[in-house]
Amino acid sequence: MKLVFATNNANKLKEVQSLIPQHIKLLSLKDIGCFEDIPETQDTIEGNAIQKVEYVKTNYGYDCFADDTGLEVAALNNEPGVYSARYAGEQRDANDNMDLLLTNLKDKSNRKAQFKTVIALHLNGKLETFTGVCKGEITQEKKGNKGFGYDPIFKPTGHTKTFAEIDLKLKNEIGHRGKAVKQLIKYFNII
Question: How confident is the model at residue 89, as a pLDDT?
Answer without folding.
Answer: 93
